[in-house]
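Troubleshooting: if your tokenizer reports a length mismatch, compare your output against this known-good record of 405 residues.
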Amino acid sequence: MANTAVTGDSAEENYMPLLGGEADDPPDIVCLSRLRWDFARQRPQHLMSRSARERRVFFVEEPVFGSTVPGLDVRRRDCGVFVVTPRLREGSDDAEAPAIEQALLLDELFLEYEVCDYILWYYTAAAVAFTWRLDPLLVVYDCMDEPSTFKSAPTGANKSAPTGAKRREAELLKLADVVFTSGQGLYEAKRRLHHNVHPFPDGVDLEHFRQARRGIVEPVDQVHIGRPRLGFSGMIDERLDWELLTAIAEARPDWQIVMIGPVVEIDPAELPRRHNIHYLGDRSYKDLPAYFSGWDVAVAPFARNESTRLIAPPEASEYLAAGVPTVSTSIRDVELLYGRRDLVKIADAPDDFVAAAERLMNRRAGYDYDVWLDRVDETLASSAWSETWARMMNLIDLTLKKLYF
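Known-good structure output:
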């Protein structure tokens, strides 16, 4: 393929032989995402890395601009996923030029890697602009967000993401054979728009986060922070309720609040600064259990507004798997999955949030941690990412049979 760079995660992977070719091989998956593969370990990474154990997966990121000649960078990750990054020319008087270039580059990718039988798996409706003419076996739309709630380009996305997100999504829903949603709220928003919609809340890497229960060593940048200690892990962005966080810090100056994650879409200078709020920055996924092990209470202080109305934050599941008692604001999917079962305390007002966290710290106040943990494990038993992937694939197989048999 012209102007295509192929690299691997290690030196021995620099040469990538073609795979497959047998008639009974499972179809490839061509995944189209607005999120960068290396930005964070989120839903696409969990699902596509599992899929790559049994088939080829091409994860097509949004393009980078500035290349003198259009081309592709193709890198095979250790998990087996081919990460594909289009390189496009900077700017053009023709508004359709980027889509045309991406369509031509995708043709070259398919030719080079002999992609014939494949599933198109969309995480971004914007990709319809350069994929609508393709002829896949099946089209999957795995909906993580409500496009109409974006105030700016989605976190981890290329800033050139086109406008008209709702229009593009309507086009994708016409193309899709099956639609998955990352939460119940999104399911209710989409179920009247398509005949084959299924809710699949984010799974959780149970064994990974359960390491936090086994007394692992805390990271050096957290161990010196005093106790009691509250913790948050996720995107530090506009979805968080910064007034609530500030009120908690001021109400209990003896509590330390640890914030882990990249600052995105907001000016770091505007973050609330208090002596007991500690911004540790982004940390690797593999190190999160070590941080969680040193928290007395985990928090999910999301704002309640249009941008969070349909979100299904995965943080609560990770906190619970780690065995960390949790307080969240009244995000609908958190309430539905865990609040109604009293596995996560729900509070919105600062006084209520502080009181809930204090009760979780004080096990003598009618709170039995061991009983709670048993109930957590029972609830999470079917929430592993491998289980989520298996159920998705079962629905995909059923949809394929209805289409072709």
